[in-house]
Amino acid sequence: MSGIWNDFNSAQSNSNVIPKGTLAKVRLTIRPGGFDDPSQGWTGGFAKRAATGAVYLDAEYTVVDGPYARRKIWSLIGLYSPKGPDWANMGRSLIRAILNSARGISDKDNSPEAQARRRINGFGDLDGLEFVARIDIGQDTNGDDKNEVRGAVTPDHRDYAALMGTAALPIGTAAPQGYAPQQTATTRPSQPASAPGNAGRPSWAQ
Fold first, then answer.
1. Nearest C-alpha neighbor of 205 from the set 92, 56, 37
2. HSE on the CB side for 153, CA within 13 Å?
3. How far is Cα 27 from Cα 10, in angstroms, rounded to an integer?
4. Tens of pLDDT along 79-108?
5. Whole-model pTM above 0.85?
6. Which residue in 79, 110, 147, 191 has a CA-CA distance of 20 to 30 Å to 16?
7. Kind of pairing, strands 72-80 and 42-49?
């Protein structure tokens, strides 16, 4: 006996994971963690501190439109790891890409105006930003696949304008509402490595 109700090998997979490499416009929400360190520029209660000493932003990304509209993705943006600077460097790189995408800045643009747009007054400036995310796949604490956001698409990408639903914001136009660039960027001192790892989280984040 054969047929679609006898052989289910051809049935669509029930995986709830958005395919790796999908580009989608998302809205970033930072779920507050209550940890502040003004010496690092971490204020407003947005950062979280794990028992291991790692500090991060707990990010929620909601897909705005397209075939995955209203789907949510949760992942971490690293700020500090006791194991070294790698996680913080990745976090800063992701935030730069998010700002470039949300504010319509070419990653190659190092003009004074572009540099000003890559500055924020605090993490509250990131909350609510809409940008084009490049969706990736990682693993949760059980080893199952889960979506993550590790990169953003900037105006240099051919599909950026269509995905954002608007043309890239040219340098010299008004910045987004509520944006006021800070005067100096924060620096982070190097930290000693320590602490064992936890499953489902990058080793440098533990």
1. 56
2. 20
3. 35
4. 999 999 999 999 999 999 999 999 999 999
5. no
6. 79
7. unpaired
Cα→Cα distances 173→37, 69, 87, 107, 185, Å: 33, 29, 34, 17, 22
Amino acid (one-letter) located at 164: M
Beta carbons within 8 Å of 96's beta carbon, 6+ residues apart = 107, 118
Contact yes or no for 168/160 (Cβ under 8 A): yes
Which residue from 100, 126, 129 is spatially nearest to 115, judged by alpha carbons?
Answer: 100
Q: Which amino acid is at 77?
A: I
Helices (H) and strands (E) in the chain, counts: 3, 7
CA dist 105 and 154 (Å) reads 7
* DSSP-assigned states of every residue in the chain: --STTT--TTSPP---PPPTT-EEEEEEEEE---EEEGGGTEEEEEEEE-TTS-EEEEEEEEE-SSTTTT-EEEEEEEEEBTTBSHHHHHHHHHHHHHHHHHHT--TT--SHHHHHHT--SSGGGTTT-EEEEEEEEEE-TTS-EEEEEEEEE-TTSTTHHHHHTS----TTSPPPTT----SS--------------TTS-GGG-
- pLDDT tens figures, 115-147: 999 999 999 999 999 999 999 999 888 888 999
Q: Partners of 131 in the beta sheet?
A: 26
